[in-house]
């Protein structure tokens, strides 16, 4: 697993623009070397800010949108089309304005879908979809995602894995139903840490003063049960994309030499 690297930007707008440019380049590179790309999206303001920045970037036309698989790190278990669903927000921010192959947009099930209100069944179905997309040489239950995006919560949660909650202790399953989430809505579906760690690159996004303690804790040696973000690492790269406010309580020894 990779050691976290930090990039600190002046503010959350610049962070979103820079992360958008970085993600576009990553997708174009993956498509050039492997023919297609796979990206795991996150819910939350920072993840949506990144998608909005891609939508507004002329470089978005460098991506072949028909050759990308989109997955989700977590979903709020609500009816199809609910404005609070992560997929609904991602569609509004970017997905409805680019020519994606609908078969390659792997939204997590909704609470009025084939599994009804059974979040465990929805999680199991998503786990099967991931396993089917994993090529045998991966020897893994999930595909080798090129980039997996995660917003970081003020309590250090990532996806729907909350400190001390059962989900963060899951070691077998790749996808779980989450009940009693401290962040509304209470029922969610989430990738687990082992699934997250099978990504080539994990990028964590945090902006604002209210994230400063979480960022400092996750990067200062806290365990993943207390600080789930600490356990979110990519196989070849773990990148924390921050603004100065979110980085403001990092120990000086961790603060990167250059920031913009
Ligand atoms: O469904 C969700 O709410 C998320 O996926 C969640 O993990 C989010 O990414 C963080 O809470 C950060 O959210 P912000 O970027 O809005 O702070």
Automatic annotation (TrEMBL):
Transmembrane segments: none annotated. It comes from the Bacteria. Pathway: Carbohydrate degradation; pentose phosphate pathway; D-ribulose 5-phosphate from D-glucose 6-phosphate (oxidative stage): step 2/3. Residues 11-240 form the Glucosamine/galactosamine-6-phosphate isomerase domain. GO terms for molecular function: 6-phosphogluconolactonase activity. NCBIfam families: pgl. This is 6-phosphogluconolactonase. It comes from Streptomyces rochei.
């Amino acid at each position: 697993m990779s050691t976290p690297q930090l990039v600190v930007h002046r503010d959350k707008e610049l962070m979103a623009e820079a992360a958008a440019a970085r993600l576009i380049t990553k997708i174009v590179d993956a498509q050039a070397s492997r023919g297609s790309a796979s990206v795991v999206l996150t819910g939350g303001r920072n993840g949506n800010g990144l998608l909005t920045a891609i939508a507004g970037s002329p470089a978005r036309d460098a991506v072949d949108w028909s050759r990308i698989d989109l997955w989700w790190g977590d979903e709020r278990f609500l009816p199809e089309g609910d404005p609070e669903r992560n997929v609904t927000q991602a569609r509004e921010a970017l997905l409805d304005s680019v020519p994606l192959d609908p078969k390659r947009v792997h939204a997590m099930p909704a609470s009025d879908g084939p599994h009804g209100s059974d979040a465990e069944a929805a999680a199991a179905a998503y786990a099967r979809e991931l396993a089917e997309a994993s090529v045998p040489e991966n020897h893994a239950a999930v595909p080798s995602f090129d980039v997996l995006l995660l917003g970081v919560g003020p309590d250090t949660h990532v996806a729907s894995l909350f400190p001390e909650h059962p989900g963060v202790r899951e070691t077998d399953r790749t996808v779980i139903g989450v009940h009693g989430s401290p962040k509304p809505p209470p029922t969610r579906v989430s990738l687990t840490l082992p699934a997250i760690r099978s990504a080539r690159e994990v990028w964590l996004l945090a902006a604002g003063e209210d994230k400063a303690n979480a960022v400092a804790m996750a990067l200062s040696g806290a365990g993943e049960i207390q600080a789930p973000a600490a356990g979110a690492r990519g196989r070849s790269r773990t990148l924390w994309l921050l603004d100065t406010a979110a980085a403001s309580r990092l120990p000086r020894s961790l603060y990167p030499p250059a920031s913009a």
